[in-house]
Amino acid sequence: MTLTTTVTSATRVILFDHDGTLIDSEATHFQLWQEVLSPYGITLDENFYCAEMAGIPVNQNAKDVVRHFAMDVNPQVLANAKHAKTRGFLQSQAFPLMPYAKEALAACAEAGYTLGIVTGGSGLSVQRTLKAYGFEQWIQVVVAAEDVEQSKPAPDCYLKAAAQLGANSQHCIAVEDTQHGLEAAVNAGMRCVVVPTSHSEKHDFSSATSRYNSLREWVEAEIRSQ
Known about the structure:
Blueprint lengths: L12 E4 L9 H12 L8 H8 L4 H11 L6 H18 L8 H10 L3 E5 L4 H11 L5 E5 L12 H9 L7 E5 L2 H9 L3 E4 L15 E2 L3 H9 L3
Parallel strand pairs: 1-2, 1-4, 2-3, 4-5, 5-6
């Protein structure tokens, strides 16, 4: 853990990433991508997924996969197949929560911060999470991949969330688990705390304001201590 703190006296808004930060979805996304690529004779390696795909929107994933494996297929075909598999999964269940996710949101809300979710994933996935776990009471804004022309690592999603809340970037912080999400927040002029997962622990987090091993550790150090 770094001694630098992300939350400052200027902080008014806390914007959470979704996949890998609030929900434990990366293992499922990896499995679904394996299912999408299997008919093409492609075996997706977990190391490649972690390094190149985790935290990246599906449409970009598809382009990267086609290029890396030199596939003779339109990337949109793969993206559509992945979206269909994800919708199928969400029809029967929500993704499980990351440890301490609900407690973290509750603590931030109780401390008086305005909360939002900014994701490179789908809005459908976020809405499923909000309803399944009662997060609607805390979340004031949601910006998903389909809400911007360029998703993470472009800053558009974070800038849009701030604008919708009437906040400036210096009043917002981001909570992320991947390098791509971190870059989006930093490019938007926001301070960013990272909580890496096993899928992102080897990412470059050198531009993060602070880094913690868990949401609980961050909340105890920066939210409950205020």
